[in-house]
Amino acid sequence: MAEMSAPVARFPAPTPPIRPEYLRDVVAGRDIGVVEKPLTVFQRLANQGWLRKSLILAVIAVVWEAYARHLNNPLLVPTFTATLEAFKAGIASGDIPQKVLNSVQLLLKGYAAGLSLALVLTALAMMFRLGNDLLETLTSAFNPLPAIALLPLALIWFGLGDTSIIFVLVHSVLWAVALNTHSGFRSVSNTLRMVGRNCGLRGISFITKILIPAAFPSILTGLKIGWAFAWRTLIAAELVFGVSSGKGGLGWYIYENKNMLDIPAVFAGLFTVILIGLIVENLIFRNIESATVRRWGMQS
Amino acid sequence: MSSDRTKADDDGRTPLLQVDGVTLQYKTEKHLITATYRVSFDVHRADRYVLLGPSGCGKSTLLKAVGGYMSPTEGSMQLKGVPVRGPGPDRMFVFQEFDQLLPWKTVKQNVMFALQASGKMRGKAAEAQAMRYIDKVNLSKFADAYPHTLSGGMKQRVAIARAMAMEPDILLMDEPFAALDALTRRKMQEELLQLWEDTRFTVLFVTHSIPEAVLIGNRILLLSPHPGQVKGELNSDGSDPIDRASGAKLSDRIHDILFADRIEEQEVKSHG
Q1: How many A×B Cβ pairs under 8 Å?
Q2: Closest CA to A132 of A140, A97, A25, A222
Q3: Is residue A144 a part of any domain in this protein?
């Protein structure tokens, strides 16, 4: 208080100059000229994500081709064109499509089973405190355990067959999805929860109508991670115990061709694995994203 | 007990909401906090009843208790003579936060959501009801827009439409305009009063702004902080009239009542 009441007048206190007032009429928008101007063709092309990414892939293919030609050893690194040839031959003979079908069928079964289990676990965790403890304990115990490490055990329990592979697939999907869904549920704002309860929602209807859509960004991340884990686990399982499912999938295709030293075909197998990954990410998940979380403004 | 109070009521009308000696307590990590201490008040049909007080007077907690989100440790709350138990669609909430709208639903779907989720209406009837109230808040053009494309004021108007479309016994508004800029707030206050002229709803309105309380309320409950206790209950007609006895404006009187202690405190501090 004392500081304010007695200003020391050693320097002249600065005062702003007094300027005349004025008012103006603004010019109407159309008279200014450019208010909105369409972008050039190049700018619009550069804004297309798929185009930029395709360019990256093309550059990688060119570098690969150049390096393989320089190395000139098809047993170590076949050229990009040789890989494409092998890929085409594999497609034409019906070998690759059949293997892809086997792998994807198995994968979808395991993925679906893993998702349903994850949903049940997280629903229990949201409704009961003990369910919450169960989920937290199980995820912290099993999430770090590589799914492939369970395969020997699965083979003893379920024998040589699809069931063993589905078992390890469920293990690889379940914990990643449950963990993400659960943390998504928990970060739903208190206001939204109160809105849901205000409308009389409780139990399962509260979960399906409020928590799941509100946590959808996290759930989608969980789905993506779960998909990648499952895909990796499947290929690895087939590489190691490929014949276990009788028909054999892509992993088995890679393994078989390695044994026959048909390296371009090995590369064609890997190429197929990558291609499917790209398609799932860029077609399926991207479209789900733009139809949901982006449309809702929950992700930019 | 409540029947005695009902009979004792001045004009013979039963209050819509009776809050009787309510003490509210909640726990934080380390403390048990008493938010309000033995607060009583009655809200009548078509009241614009304002809970006013500085931060820490437990006004928002009190509103949450009326909403059914917490139960009192002492006292009772009755809506139409029935004790309040748990949240329900007969008391619709409008919050301060903009994220009270479901981002995955359009304006129309948001309003319809409340109607459908509570089982009040379905299908075409819900849609017609939703559009009627969206029209009342002048958002018909934006019925199919998603919330993230709307301004703050528009989001609050949707929230108000959603609550009003339910035609609840009482609207509970928790500082609904506090996060808006001054010009929009002013406009929204006038719109709310206009809506009240149209439909004569009952609203319990929480605010910490004296001008807002004077403008919005017909009855103002003054609460003191730490813990919240009733300091008085005043009438308002929205025009901030001069009191004949004291010669002060209503808003100045409220300011004096609410902050009298604090000014004394400060004087003691500055002298000491």
Answers
A1: 67
A2: A140
A3: yes
Task: Spell out the residues 6+ positions from residue B30 whose beta carbon is closer than 8 angstroms to its own.
Answer: none
Q: How many CA atoms lie within 13 A of A157 on its CB side?
A: 12
Question: How far is CA B246 from each of CA B71, B212, B250, B256, rounded to the nearest angstrom?
Answer: 40, 22, 10, 12
| Shortest alpha-carbon distance between residue A191 and chain B (Å) | 6
Nearest CA in chain B to A210: B102
Residues of chain A found within 8 Å of residue B104, distances taken between Cβ atoms: 213-214, 216, 292, 296, 298
Tell whether A252 and A115 lie within a shared domain: yes
Residues A162 and A272 in one domain: yes
When pLDDT is cut at 50, 70 and 90, the band that residue B3 belongs to is very low
Which whole number is the average pLDDT over A175-184?
92
* Chain B residues near residue A296 by CB distance under 8 angstroms: 103-104, 146, 148
Query: Are A201 and A265 found together in one domain?
Result: yes
Q: How far is B103 from chain A (nearest CA, A)?
A: 5
Given a contact cutoff of 8 angstroms between Cβ atoms, the answer to whether A107 and A279 are in contact is: no
Q: Tell whether B90 is within 8 A of chain A (Cβ).
A: no
| Cα A107 from Cα A95, distance rounded (Å) | 18
pLDDT tens digits for range B13-55: 788 999 999 999 988 888 888 889 999 999 999 999 999 988 8
Q: Is the confidence at residue A97, as pLDDT, over 70?
A: yes
d(CA B213, CA B215): 5
**Which pLDDT score, from 0 to 100, does residue B272 have?**
42
Query: How many domains would you assign to chain A?
Result: 2
Task: List, for residues B141-152, the tens digit of each pLDDT value.
Answer: 999 999 999 998
User: Whole-model pTM above 0.90?
Assistant: no
Q: Which amino acid is at B103?
A: P
Q: Are residues A49 and A115 in the same domain?
A: no
pLDDT at residue A34 greater than cutoff 90: no
The boundaries of the domain holding residue A125 are 80-291
Same domain assignment for residues A116 and A68? no
Q: Is residue A20 part of a domain?
A: no
Q: What average pLDDT does range B78-100 have in this prediction?
A: 90
CATH number, domain at A99?
1.10.3720.10
Distances (CA, A) of A173 to A183, A225, A289: 16, 8, 20
Across the interface, whether the CB atoms of A295 and B146 are under 8 A apart is answered yes
Q: Please indicate, yes or no, whether residues A118 and A177 belong to a single structural domain of this protein.
A: yes
Mutation to test the B interface, candidates A3, A187, A189, A195, most B Cβ within 10 Å: A195
Same domain, A180 and A277: yes
The domain locations on chain B are 102-167
Q: Per-residue pLDDT for A60 more than 90?
A: yes
pLDDT tens-place string over residues A219-245: 999 999 999 999 989 888 888 776 555
- Looking at the partner chain, which of A189, A194, A201 has a beta carbon nearest the beta carbon of B117? A201
To test the contact with chain B by mutation, choose from A187, A188, A198 the residue with the greatest count of B C-beta atoms within 10 A, namely A198
pLDDT of residue B2: 43
B59-88 residues touching A, CB cutoff 8 A? 67, 69, 86-88
Instruction: Answer yes or no: are the C-beta atoms of B221 and B49 closer than 8 Å.
Output: yes
According to the model, what pLDDT value does residue A42 have? 86
Q: A122 with A42, same domain?
A: no
A198: nearest CB among B67, B99, B103: B67
Across chain B, what does the average pLDDT equal? 86
